[in-house]
C-alpha cells in the first residue's frame, strides 16, 4: 500500500512528499465471532511492525527508508460502542497497565524478563551466515552500548573472548541480548542480519563452535563472574578495536563530549563509524577511542583530560564543544605535549595563541563569517535596530561575538537596541518561567528583529516556545537562528522545529552528493537509531561530520608519520596541522592552529515542521542562489531572488518591518507642541472645559496627507506637549531608556528643524520645508532725485548718446547741399542738425528733408527711438509705482558693534545659534514667544532686528505685505529643513519620507503651503526686495543700434559716391583751360571739388540772408526771377579778398519758395 501511494504521487510529480501511516494496529481481544483478535496476534503484528521500521529496510520502491507510523492505539477505549475489538486496540489497558509488550516500554530494557510463552524458551538468536563482518560489528556496537547486557566476556581477557572472531563475539552478544530483553521475534532482527533457531547451537556446525561450552552460559543466563568491567557506564565508554593475529599498534584517542546533548550523541556515533572504518582497512595501526562525558563545568573537562593524559596515556584528545573547556584543556595538553583537537574557538582570537598553546588544533569555524552574514541580512531588509539574545556559558565566552555583531551592524548603519543574556539551562529550575519573564521585559522595546547569537538546543526550544506565547513571533517580527541551532535542524525533533516557524537560519554548507557522505549517512542512521531510540530523527548534522573528519584527520597524520618512521608528539601535531583534504564537513586546512576560513554558509527558512533552503552566502560573493562550480568560482546570480520565498512569522506575505507597529489597541503616540510662535504651522485649541484638544495647521495637514499615501493603516493619537523643541527630542528618544520614568512618545509632528545634534537621538523624515536663518528689520522708503536715470544702465545711456550724435552728422551730411535749412556757417549747421535729431526723439522736428537717403536714415533712427521711449516709459513707471524699500539695518556686525537688541524664538535652536555661532551677547537677545509680539517689539524699539527661520519669515512678511513695514534678508545660514521626528530605527521614518516626496512631486505640498502660509495671492507673489527691478541693459537692444548706425553709414557712403560721380561728369564736359600746362591729378580734383562745394555753400548762405521774410508767421509762395547778372551780384555775398575762387559767370537764377513745404529751389 505504501509503495502504491508513493508510485501514484511520483507519476504526478510529487514523489518527494513524505508519506505517513496515520493509523495501524491489531486488537488484543474481541467477540467470539472475531477470529484472530488475541494478545499473541496483536503482539506479533505490532512487534514485527516496529522491528521492520527499526531495521530501516524500507519497501521495494523506498529501500533504506523508514516511514513514520502511528500505532492505533495507546489505550483501550472501554466506552467505545461497537464490537469488542473496537475497544481493545490499545497497547495499555484503561487502568494504565500494559496489555502486552512490544519493546517500546522502558521496562523492556531492564533486567526483568517479561512473561514469555513456553515455546520460545528453546529458541536461540544466531547471525545469518551470509552477513558481513562489518554488519556484525555494528550489531556488537549496538548491543554493547545499549546497557542491556555485559559485554565484558568478549573483551580481551574475558571468558568468552576466544575465539577472537567477529562472528563468535556477535553470536554471543546477539543471543544474550535476545534472551535478556524478552525473546520476542523483533528482538532478533538486527536489520535482518539474525535469525531464530530451535536447534541448539552446540549441535550446529558453526564457525564459532570452538569454545562454545565455555560461553554457553551466555545463551541461557547471566554469568556475572565472567564479566571484567563494564564497557559502557554513565561516565565513560570505550570503543576498542578487535584483536587479530597480527600485532597491531593501538592509537589511543580520548573524546570529551556532552553525551547528554544531541550534539554529543552525534559526535560519538560519527567517531565510532570513522574508527571502525579505519580499523577495518588499516594493517598497521588500530584506533581505540575512550569517550568521557563532560558537564557544563569546565573543571570537569580538566579532570577528565588529566586522567586521560596521565593515567590512560591518551595520544590525542578530541572534543570540547565550548571554548571555556577547550582553553583549559589546551593548557594541559600543551604542557604534556598531547595534541588537543577542539570543536570550539574564541570569537576574538587572543594574540600569540599559537605560541601559547602549540598543541591546540581549533577544528571549528570562526563566528566572524556568521556575524557578517547577519549584518548583511539586516542591511538587506533595512532594519536599523535589533535585539541580540545569547545563552551565557557562565564564563563570558560570547561577549566577543556580541562586540563583533555591534561593530558589524554599525558598519551597516544599524545598532543593537537591547541584548538579552540567558543563563545556562542546567542552572535554571524553571527555564520556561524565567525566559517568559525576560521576554516580557523585552517586549517593551520597539525592535522586533531578534538575533540569537549562541544557544543550546534546549534553550532555543524554550525561548521560541515562550516567545510564541507572548506574541513575539507574530507579524512584523523577524528571528535569526545561530549555527549551533540551524546545524541541528536535520536532526532535531519536528515538534521542536514547529516553534521556530518563520525564522531565518544560517548553517554551514556541506556537500551531500559524495559517495563518502552517502555511505556515512547510511551507517550513521542505522547506528544512531540503535543507540538513541528516544530520538525520532536519525539524520546526521554538521557536528557529526565535523567529528568524523577529526578522526580522519588523526588517522591521516598517523599514516604519514608512520611512512616517515617518526613517532614523537611534535611530529604528530606537525602532521595534523599540515593536513589538507576535503572531508565531509568541508575543506580541512589549518593556519596558525585554526581552521582556514573559506566558509560557505547556507541560508535556510524554517517552515512548519521542516525547513527550506533559500540561498548561499560567502564573504567574497555575498548572496548567490547557485552552488559553487568549483574552486573559487560561482555561477552568476545575486541576491535578487534570495529572499523571494521566505516564510515569515505569522505567515506574513511581505517583508517584516522588524518594528513594533502601531495597532488600534496600541496606536502611535505622537507628541505635538502646543505653544508655537507661528500658529499657522501647528495650532492646538481646547474646548470649553480644557480637556479635549483639536489640532490644525500646515504640519497637521501634511501628516494627514502622508497617512493616505502609506499604503497601510496607521492608527495614531496626538498628545499636546507644553515644552521646547529639545524637550520633544528627549521625549521621543527616552522611549529606549528604562531609567527615566516619564511618558514617552513614538513620534513628533510639527515644525521641528533637522539638526545634526538631534539626529543622534531620533530619526527625521526628509524635510517638507526648507530652513535658513534670515534677519528681519524695519524698512524705509528709498527715494532719489536721479530715479529718472535708473531705467537705463550707464552703458545704454552712453551708446544712445553716441548714436544720436552719429545720426546727427549723417543727416547734416546728406542735407547740406539740397536743404537751405542746413545752410549757413558751421555753428548754424551743427545746431540745426543737432536740434533736428534730438527733436526727433519726441517726434517734434519741423525741418524738412530733401534727400531720400536722409529719409532712410530717419526711418531706422525713429524705429530705435520708438522702442527706446516705450521701454523707458514702462521701466520708469514701474519704478515710480512700486514703492522702493530699504532696510534700516543690513549688517549683523553693526548690530553686534552697537550692542543692539535682537529678537528670536527662545524655545528653538535659534537662540543658542546666535549665542554660540554668531557671538551675540546673551543679554542682547530678547525671547519673543508669539508672532504678533514682533511688531510690538519693533514699534517700541525693544529690538532692532528679528532672526527667524525662513518658513516663519515668509509668514511674517506675508502678513505685513500691505504696509511693507518690514523687509527680510537673504538667509545667511542653511539648515536641514523642517521634518517630523520618529524613534531611532523606526521604519515609519522611511515610509513617511517617501510619502512626503510624493507630495512634493505632485505639487500637493505647494498647494498646502499656499493654503496655510500666505494670506492672499498678492502676498504670495510679493517680492520684498525691490532692488530686484533691474535697469534695461545694452544687450537687450543692441541689434537696433546696429541697424540704425549701419543704415546711416550706408546712406552717407551712397551720397558720397553720387557726388563724386556728378563731379566727374561735370569735369568731362567743361572747357579745357589752355593756360594750365598740365592736367591736375585725382587728389587735386577732389580738393578742388571740395573747395567749390564750400564756396557754393557760402554763396547759398548769402543768398538766403537776402531773402529773409520779415513776417515769419506766414510763408508766401512767390517766384523771383533775376534776368540780369547785376541782380545776382547784388544778392550774392561779397567774396573775401583773399579768396582765389574765380568769379562765377553771369547767369539767371530762379528761386521758387514753397510756403507750405518750406523748400527753396534754385535753378539756373
UniProtKB/TrEMBL annotation:
Membrane disposition: Multi-pass membrane protein
GO CC term, one of those recorded: membrane
Annotated transmembrane regions: 794-814, 856-876
CDD domains in the record: GluR_Plant, PBP1_GABAb_receptor_plant
InterPro entries: ANF_lig-bd_rcpt, GABAb_receptor_plant_PBP1, GH, Glu/Gly-bd, Glyco_hydro_17, Ionotropic_Glu_rcpt, Iontro_rcpt_C, Peripla_BP_I
Region called Disordered, residue ranges: 1126-1164
GO biological process, one term: carbohydrate metabolic process
Pfam family, one: X8
Biased composition (Polar residues): 1126-1141
Domain Ionotropic glutamate receptor C-terminal: 669-1015
Catalytic function, reaction form: Hydrolysis of (1->3)-beta-D-glucosidic linkages in (1->3)-beta-D-glucans
Keywords: Disulfide bond, Glycoprotein, Glycosidase, Hydrolase, Ion channel, Ion transport, Ligand-gated ion channel, Membrane, Receptor, Signal, Transmembrane, Transmembrane helix, Transport
Start and end residues of each X8 domain: 123-217
SMART domains: PBPe, X8
Recorded family membership: Belongs to the glycosyl hydrolase 17 family.
Protein's UniProt name: glucan endo-1,3-beta-D-glucosidase
Lineage: Eukaryota, Viridiplantae, Streptophyta, Embryophyta, Tracheophyta
Amino acid at each position: 500500500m505504501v509503495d502504491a501511494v508513493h508510485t501514484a504521487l511520483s507519476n504526478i510529480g510529487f514523489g518527494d512528499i513524505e508519506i505517513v501511516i496515520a493509523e495501524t494496529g491489531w486488537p488484543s481481544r474481541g467477540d467470539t465471532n472475531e477470529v484472530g483478535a488475541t494478545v499473541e496476534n496483536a503482539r506479533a503484528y505490532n512487534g514485527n511492525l516496529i522491528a521492520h521500521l527499526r531495521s530501516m529496510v524500507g519497501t521495494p520502491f523506498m529501500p533504506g527508508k523508514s516511514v513514520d507510523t502511528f500505532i492505533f492505539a495507546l489505550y483501550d477505549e472501554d466506552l467505545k460502542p461497537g464490537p469488542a475489538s473496537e475497544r481493545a486496540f490499545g497497547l495499555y489497558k484503561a487502568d494504565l497497565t500494559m496489555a502486552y509488550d512490544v519493546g517500546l516500554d522502558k521496562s523492556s530494557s531492564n533486567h526483568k524478563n517479561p512473561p514469555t510463552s513456553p515455546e520460545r524458551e528453546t529458541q536461540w538468536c544466531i547471525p545469518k551466515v551470509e552477513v558481513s563482518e562489518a554488519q556484525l560489528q555494528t550489531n556488537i556496537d549496538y548491543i554493547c552500548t545499549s546497557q542491556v547486557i555485559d559485554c565484558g566476556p568478549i573483551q580481551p581477557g574475558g571468558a568468552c573472548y576466544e575465539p577472537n572472531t567477529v562472528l563468535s563475539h556477535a553470536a554471543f552478544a546477539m543471543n544474550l541480548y535476545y534472551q535478556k530483553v524478552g525473546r520476542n521475534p523483533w528482538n532478533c532482527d538486527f536489520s535482518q542480519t539474525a535469525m531464530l533457531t530451535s536447534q541448539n547451537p552446540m549441535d550446529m556446525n558453526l564457525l564459532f563452535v570452538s569454545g562454545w561450552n565455555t560461553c554457553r552460559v551466555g545463551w541461557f543466563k547471566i554469568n556475572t563472574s565472567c564479566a571484567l568491567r563494564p564497557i559502557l557506564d554513565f561516565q565513560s565508554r570505550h570503543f576498542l578495536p578487535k584483536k587479530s593475529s597480527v600485532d597491531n599498534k593501538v592509537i589511543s584517542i580520548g573524546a570529551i563530549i556532552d553525551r547528554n546533548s544531541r550534539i554529543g550523541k552525534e559526535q560519538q556515533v560519527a567517531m565510532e563509524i570513522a574508527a571502525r572504518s579505519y580499523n577495518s582497512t588499516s594493517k598497521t595501526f588500530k584506533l581505540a577511542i575512550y569517550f568521557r562525558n563532560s558537564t557544563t563545568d569546565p573543571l570537569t573537562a580538566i579532570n577528565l583530560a588529566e586522567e586521560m593524559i596521565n593515567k590512560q596515556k591518551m595520544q590525542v584528545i578530541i572534543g570540547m564543544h565550548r571554548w571555556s573547556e577547550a582553553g583549559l584543556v589546551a593548557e594541559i595538553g600543551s604542557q604534556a605535549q598531547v595534541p588537543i583537537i577542539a570543536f570550539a574557538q574564541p570569537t576574538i582570537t587572543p594574540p600569540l595563541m599559537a605560541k601559547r598553546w602549540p598543541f591546540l588544533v581549533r577544528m571549528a569555524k570562526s563566528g566572524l563569517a556568521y556575524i557578517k552574514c547577519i549584518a548583511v541580512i539586516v542591511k538587506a531588509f533595512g532594519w536599523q535596530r535589533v535585539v541580540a539574545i545569547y545563552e551565557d556559558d557562565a564564563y563570558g565566552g560570547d561577549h566577543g561575538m556580541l562586540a563583533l555583531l555591534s561593530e558589524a551592524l554599525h558598519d551597516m548603519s544599524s545598532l543593537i537596541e537591547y541584548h538579552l543574556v540567558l543563563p545556562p539551562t542546567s542552572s535554571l529550575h524553571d527555564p520556561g518561567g524565567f525566559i517568559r519573564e525576560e521576554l516580557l521585559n523585552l517586549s517593551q522595546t520597539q525592535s522586533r528583529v531578534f538575533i540569537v547569537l549562541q544557544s543550546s538546543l534546549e534553550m532555543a526550544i524554550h525561548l521560541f516556545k515562550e516567545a510564541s506565547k507572548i506574541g513575539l513571533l507574530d507579524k512584523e517580527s523577524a528571528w535569526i537562528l545561530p549555527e549551533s541551532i540551524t546545524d541541528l535542524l536535520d536532526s532535531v525533533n519536528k515538534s521542536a522545529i514547529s516553534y521556530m516557524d518563520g525564522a531565518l537560519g544560517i548553517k554551514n554548507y556541506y556537500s551531500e552528493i559524495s559517495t563518502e557522505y552517502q555511505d556515512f549517512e547510511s551507517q550513521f542512521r542505522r547506528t544512531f537509531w540503535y543507540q538513541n531510540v528516544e530520538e525520532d530523527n536519525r539524520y546526521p548534522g554538521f557536528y557529526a561530520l565535523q567529528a568524523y573528519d577529526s578522526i580522519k584527520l588523526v588517522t591521516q597524520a598517523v599514516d604519514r608519520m608512520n611512512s616517515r618512521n617518526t613517532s614523537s608528539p611534535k611530529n604528530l601535531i606537525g602532521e595534523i596541522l599540515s593536513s589538507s583534504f576535503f572531508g565531509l564537513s568541508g575543506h580541512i586546512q589549518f593556519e596558525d592552529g585554526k581552521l582556514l576560513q573559506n566558509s560557505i554558509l547556507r541560508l535556510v527558512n524554517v517552515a512548519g515542521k521542516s525547513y527550506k533552503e533559500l540561498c548561499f552566502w560567502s564573504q567574497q560573493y555575498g548572496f548567490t542562489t547557485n552552488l559553487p562550480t568549483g574552486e573559487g568560482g560561482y555561477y552568476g546570480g545575486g541576491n535578487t531572488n534570495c529572499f523571494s520565498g521566505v516564510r515569515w512569522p505569522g505567515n506574513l506575505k511581505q517583508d517584516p518591518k522588524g518594528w513594533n507597529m502601531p495597532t488600534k489597541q496600541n496606536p502611535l503616540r505622537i507628541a505635538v507642541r502646543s505653544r508655537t510662535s507661528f500658529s499657522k504651522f501647528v495650532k492646538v485649541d481646547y474646548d470649553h472645559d480644557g480637556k479635549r484638544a483639536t489640532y490644525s495647521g500646515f504640519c497637521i495637514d501634511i501628516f494627514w496627507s502622508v497617512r493616505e499615501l502609506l499604503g497601510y493603516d496607521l492608527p495614531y493619537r496626538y498628545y499636546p506637549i507644553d515644552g521646547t523643541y529639545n524637550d520633544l527630542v528627549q521625549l521621543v528618544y527616552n522611549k529606549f531608556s528604562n531609567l527615566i520614568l516619564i511618558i514617552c512618545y513614538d513620534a513628533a509632528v510639527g515644525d521641528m528643524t533637522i539638526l545634526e545634534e538631534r539626529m543622534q537621538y531620533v530619526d527625521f523624515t526628509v524635510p517638507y520645508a526648507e530652513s535658513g536663518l534670515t534677519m528681519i528689520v524695519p524698512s524705509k522708503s528709498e527715494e532719489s532725485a536721479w530715479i529718472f536715470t535708473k531705467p537705463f544702465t550707464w552703458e545704454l545711456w552712453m551708446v544712445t548718446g553716441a548714436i544720436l550724435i552719429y545720426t546727427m552728422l549723417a543727416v547734416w551730411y546728406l542735407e547740406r547741399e539740397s536743404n537751405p535749412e542746413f545752410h549757413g556757417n558751421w555753428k548754424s549747421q551743427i545746431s540745426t542738425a543737432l536740434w533736428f535729431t534730438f527733436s526727433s526723439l519726441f517726434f517734434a522736428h519741423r525741418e524738412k528733408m530733401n534727400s531720400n537717403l536722409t529719409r532712410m536714415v530717419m526711418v531706422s533712427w525713429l524705429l530705435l527711438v520708438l522702442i527706446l521711449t516705450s521701454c523707458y516709459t514702462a521701466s520708469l513707471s514701474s519704478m515710480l509705482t512700486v514703492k522702493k524699500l530699504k532696510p534700516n539695518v543690513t549688517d549683523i556686525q553693526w548690530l553686534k558693534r552697537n550692542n543692539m537688541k535682537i529678537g528670536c524664538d527662545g524655545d528653538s535652536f535659534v537662540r543658542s545659534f546666535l549665542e554660540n555661532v554668531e557671538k551675540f551677547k546673551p543679554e542682547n537677545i530678547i525671547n519673543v514667544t508669539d508672532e504678533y509680539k514682533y511688531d510690538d517689539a519693533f514699534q517700541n524699539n525693544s529690538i532692532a532686528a528679528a532672526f527667524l527661520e525662513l518658513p516663519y519669515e515668509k509668514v511674517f512678511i506675508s502678513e505685513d505685505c500691505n504696509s511693507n513695514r518690514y523687509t527680510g534678508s537673504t538667509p545667511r545660514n542653511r539648515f536641514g529643513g523642517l521634518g517630523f521626528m520618529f524613534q531611532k530605527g523606526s521604519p515609519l521614518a522611511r515610509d513617511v519620507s517617501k510619502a512626503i516626496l510624493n507630495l512634493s512631486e505632485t505639487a500637493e505640498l505647494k498647494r498646502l503651503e499656499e493654503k496655510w502660509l500666505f494670506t492672499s495671492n498678492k502676498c504670495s507673489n510679493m517680492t520684498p526686495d525691490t532692488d530686484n527691478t533691474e535697469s534695461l541693459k545694452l544687450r537687450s537692444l543692441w541689434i537696433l543700434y546696429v541697424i540704425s548706425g549701419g543704415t546711416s553709414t550706408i546712406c552717407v557712403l551712397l551720397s558720397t559716391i553720387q557726388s563724386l560721380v556728378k563731379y566727374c561728369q561735370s569735369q568731362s564736359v567743361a572747357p579745357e583751360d589752355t593756360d594750365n600746362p598740365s592736367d591736375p591729378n585725382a587728389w587735386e580734383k577732389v580738393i578742388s571739388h571740395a573747395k567749390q562745394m564750400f564756396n557754393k555753400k557760402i554763396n547759398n548762405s548769402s543768398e538766403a540772408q537776402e531773402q529773409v521774410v520779415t513776417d515769419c508767421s506766414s510763408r508766401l509762395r512767390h517766384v523771383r526771377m533775376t534776368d540780369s547778372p547785376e541782380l545776382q551780384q547784388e544778392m550774392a555775398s561779397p567774396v573775401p579778398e583773399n579768396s582765389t575762387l574765380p568769379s562765377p559767370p553771369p547767369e539767371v537764377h530762379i528761386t521758387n519758395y514753397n510756403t507750405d513745404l518750406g523748400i527753396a529751389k534754385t535753378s539756373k
